[in-house]
Design goal:
Blueprint lengths: L7 E3 L6 E3 L5 H12 L3 H12 L3 H13 L8 H13 L16 H11 L18 H4 L2 H16 L10 H10 L6 H5 L2 H24 L3 H11 L5
Helix pairs in contact: 1-2, 2-3, 4-7, 4-10, 7-8, 8-11, 10-11
Length: 231
């Protein structure tokens, strides 16, 4: 049956119309476990149970989670650091091109995809995997433009069947080349402080997960490179 008392609202980021229902921590964890096991159907069933909505509403709500980084409810500590990032990178203008697009077909393909996306429309599937990652090819200003949504994806759980936990790719971009990292050199001093604050928060809240996923070395390298006192 439908959930008549709960309105359907359009997401202000991706415009998808979904049930306006904020799950409890237990409900969200039930959905996450189902998605982590590769079952969107079970995830929708869990959401339907907690929200008392229709099958169609539940499926749409779960699909929204998988498509929009902004769809996820955030813990207050996560939201605090994401708000800092949103503010620090708010004025970064979307570049006309992201890669050296005339270099090769791969560069051109990544550039075409990134040009077609915004901070609001970028999806996890767009970010590929370590062997096919458009951000690897992006210039620093392109990373700066997308950084607020990349940080959001890095904080999200490992629920995409066809892709690994994005935190690993994210940390590799932050840690690469240490203090000579192209994105670090491009950032303003205030942006560097905010990136380091994010990494510190990530270490405090996802450090154990990073260790179990063997991305702890990149996390520590990123923390060292972005430490404000070293620049």
């Amino acid at each position: 049956m439908g959930h008549a008392m709960t309105p359907m609202l359009s997401c202000k980021h991706c415009t998808k119309v979904v049930l306006h229902f904020t799950p409890t921590d237990d409900a969200l964890q039930s959905v996450v476990r189902a998605l982590s096991n590769g079952s969107k159907g079970l995830a929708a069933g869990e959401f339907k149970y907690f929200s008392n909505c229709s099958d169609e509403e539940a499926a749409a709500w779960v699909e929204h989670l998988l498509q929009c980084a902004h769809a996820w409810p955030n813990a207050q500590a996560d939201q605090n650091v994401l708000t800092l990032i949103d503010s620090a990178f708010a004025d970064v203008v979307k570049p006309e091109h992201f890669t050296d697009y005339t270099h090769c077909d791969e560069c051109n393909e990544h550039d075409t995809m990134l040009r077609a996306r915004t901070r609001d429309s970028l999806r996890r599937s767009d970010l590929g995997n370590p062997g096919w990652d458009p951000i690897t090819f992006s210039r620093a200003e392109g990373i700066g433009y997308f950084f607020p949504v990349l940080a959001r994806f890095a904080l999200l759980p490992d629920v995409w069947r066809d892709n690994e936990w994005y935190a690993g790719q994210f940390l590799s971009h932050i840690a690469w080349d240490g203090r000579e990292n192209r994105f670090l050199l491009w950032c303003t001093p205030q942006q560097r402080i905010v990136v380091h604050a994010f990494l510190t928060h990530f270490s405090a809240t996802r450090g154990n997960a990073a260790l179990s996923c063997a991305i702890q070395d990149d996390l520590q390298a990123g923390l060292a490179a972005w430490q404000p006192s070293t620049r």
